[in-house]
Design goal:
The chain is an all-alpha fold. It has one domain (about 35-70, about 75-250). The chain has 11 helices and no strands. Helix 4 runs parallel beside helix 8 and helix 8 (about 150-165) runs antiparallel to helix 10.
Length: about 260
Amino acid sequence: MTDVAVASRNKRFYWNWIPDVLLRPRRAFERIASVNLSVWITPLLLLSIMILINVLVAGRIKSQVAMTGEITYPPDFQYYSADQQAQYMQAIQSTQGPVFVYVLPAITALVGIWIGWLILGGALHLATTLFGGRGSTLMSMNIVAWASMPLAIRSLIQIAYMLITHKLIVSPGLSGFSPVGDSAAIQFLGQLLKVIDIYVVWQIILLIMGTRKSTALSLVKSAIAVVLVVLIFLALQAGIAYLMSLLGNLSITRPFFF
């Protein structure tokens, strides 16, 4: 048993690992891969806290906007039909209470984080096993959790932006590059672009590093496994968002999935 593993048995939280994951990821994931213990609680707890603060700040801005009578329209609002625009305005008026502004977004965000971690961790372990990796499910769950640190940084930057500008983020990710149209393919592409940004790319790089250290796979196999799993996961996330927008006949806010 390594010295890291021995020391880790007496700890529950690993806040001192966070700087290394962000600044010295190669060394950090060597340490994480060497520990055959559950060390995933710290990054998930931090991400959950950041997301909750994000929801609170966004909710406060929504409440202030509602009090002034201002309405933040989705980027493609002008392309909605008259019925869709009327439904959007009606939905805005009926969702200005604390339950819709704070409680439901917070619950949705937390469920997205933890369920997303379980799905992505399990899928990554399956993919690396098929590629001949020797890692365990626990290692995959640890790697996925710590590789989520860029998402916490993204949330921190979003919080700072909203506090400074007093404006909501209405075009997340690459959604500004989404083509205009009403077809299902274009709408799905728009939802997919919302969940892709530089922080997801950063997360993918960390996942590749961690997967290579924990499974003994080559760099190429690790990269293929990670990119394949993440793309499928993002497509699933975009598909859920698209179906929800169809059910509500509205453009919805990006969920806080992994």
